[in-house]
Amino acid sequence: MIGNLIGGVYFLAAVLFILGLKKMSSPVTARDGIVWAGIGMVLATLVTFLKPNTGDLSVISNFELIIIAIMIGALPAWWFAKRVAMTDMPQMIAMYNGMGGGAAATIAAVELMRATTGHELSLTVQTLAVLGAVIGSVSFSGSIIAFAKLQGIMRTSFLFPGQQLVNLVFFIITLVLGVMVIVQGGSASMTLIVSFFILALIFGILMTLPIGGADMPVVISLYNALTGLAVGFEGFVLGNATMIIAGTVVGAAGTLLTQLMAKAMNRPLSNVLFSGFGAKGGEEATGEGVEGSLKPIDAADAAIMMAYAQQVIIIPGYGMAVAQAQHKIWELTKSLTERDVRVKFAIHPVAGRMPGHMNVLLAEAGVPYDLISDLDEINAEFEQTDVALVIGANDVVNPIARTDPNSPIYGMPILNADKAKNVVVIKRGRGTGFSGVENHLFYADNTRMLYGDGQKMVAELQQQVKSL
Amino acid sequence: MVEGFVGFTALYIFMLAAFVGYEVISRVPVILHTPLMSGSNFVHGIVLVGAMVALGHADTTLEKTIGFLGVILATGNAVGGYFVTERMLEMFKSSKGGAK
Fold first, then answer.
1. Which terminus of chain B has fewer Cβ atoms in its 10 Å neighbourhood, N or C?
2. Among residues A56, A340, A395, A445, which one is catalytic?
């Protein structure tokens, strides 16, 4: 009886998760989606306390410990989640995601250790436990490194000679230990199991060290997929279908999102993970072959240009987040709209430090989502646009990606800002983008450079437009 | 129960769930990529149920310690993931008003 109740609620939870995710595919119903999934989670958690104290894997005791651990975990997570600034969202998500991966790894650890004290697992289950352990551990330690980098505690890419070889060696040792754990099963020594986990954790750190900066959206989304998979595998181990379903759905979704991100940068995933982009460059990072010159403009002139335009497209990038300029941009948009200027936002899929980062920041500032377009929707419109305002974006508007096959970013889909009649670029200094490639857009005849802090410049533009 | 379960039935569940994940997500507009990622981040917080079971049948002190840590981590994933996603989704508004 109680078994049927638990089974039924677990089933309901799985349904709620899938429906919740489905609802998140439209901005109108997305809010309900997370609430549905949340209800599923609460029900599944509560019903787990009812598990009877008999049987094999369904035995539940240590109730006090479970409740204490839930309270220790819930309070800080809730506190930080409520307070974190939208700009810092990427690292927060990386952290929560890593915790999930870590939890999957601890399940594997407990089950593998129990296997050595008489609760033996079949070869299949032992294998899945080990797989989930590797993936979960990598996601855990990797996400912590990603958090440290995004938080600015650690420099963005950490490279040393022979790094790939070292990583490969660690990977192989981890795999060998994992196979040994599988083969030895119940007779595996505690030292072996513990070493296996430590190696897997170290590998996660090593793997994430060289990746940084603009590659972060790919990494965050990849670790999300990995945690999902690890949870799915541990679901097999515990015979819990809801964990299998939820974990696998997330794993598949995350994999798809990761592919989208990698595609938006025109680089295979392996290249993102193993190459340390931008750091090896430097050779071609000069202005050579660039025609024209950088032509500065002041805010007053740029404001006139925009105020008398018919259509303005704003292209935000990570620089906007750094300068916290999103609120000023919305004010500028409102001032322009009052003058009957059509304002749209164009967002590149990998702008920012996580998938959709710019959308969240603009939404926070109050920009309605129907003003925001992605690459495919808006690229045809630049030719009919009077002013393209680029703020804090660089590589994603570099026309060299279309024209120069020798460029490292060649083939990457870009926003065709250069096709607009006029381009205004707000930029702090003269440096190159993440890729280290000189941006030909900045030298184009129709481009003017507005040097200064993003937030200050946008505020100035807004005041000028208002006073016209 | 476990042995019978981990067989082809589990494999079928795995396969079908993978397709569901792929289908559900492939229709999501770019503007919802972040909430979606953080929403799916919350959904794998279901690992909490597994962590509770693991701690629930842990015997030795080492197992209990690891299981305890697992429940803390899993709770952090679920709770943090939920509130972060909810906060982001609350912000998405249409210029026509009305929509959430």
1. N
2. A395
Helix (H, G, I), strand (E, B) or coil at A311: strand
Tens of pLDDT, residue by residue over A404-445, are: 888 888 888 999 999 999 999 998 877 677 777 788 899 999
| pLDDT bracket for residue A42 (50, 70, 90) | very high
- Phi and psi of A310, rounded to 5°? -90, -45
- The answer to whether A57 contacts chain B (CB < 8 Å) is yes
Burial of B28 (0-12, 13-18, 19+ CB in 10 A): buried
Nearest neighbour of B58 by CB, restricted to A27, A49, A110: A110
Mean pLDDT, residues A18-43 taken together? 91
CA A24 – CA B92 distance, rounded (Å): 12
- Which chain A residues have a beta carbon less than 8 Å from that of B49? 10, 44-45, 48, 240, 242-243
CA distance A221 to A265: 14
Q: Is A461 in a helix, a strand, or coil?
A: helix
Phi, psi for A450 (deg, rounded to 5): -110, 100
Three-class DSSP category at A117: coil
**A78: nearest CA partner in chain B:** B80
Cβ–Cβ under 8 Å, residues A467 and A300:
no
Q: Contact A107/A132 with Cβ under 8 angstroms?
A: yes
Tell me what percent of the residues of chain A surpass a pLDDT of 90: 58
Q: Which residues contact A437 (CB under 8 A, 6 or more apart)?
A: A281, A284, A285, A395, A398, A400, A407, A408, A409
Which among A446, A414, A401, A422 has a CA at the least distance from the CA of A347? A414
Secondary structure class of A154 (helix, strand, coil): coil
- Beta carbons of A51 and A5 less than 8 angstroms apart: no
A392 vs B: CB within 8 A:
no
Strands A311-316 and A342-347: parallel
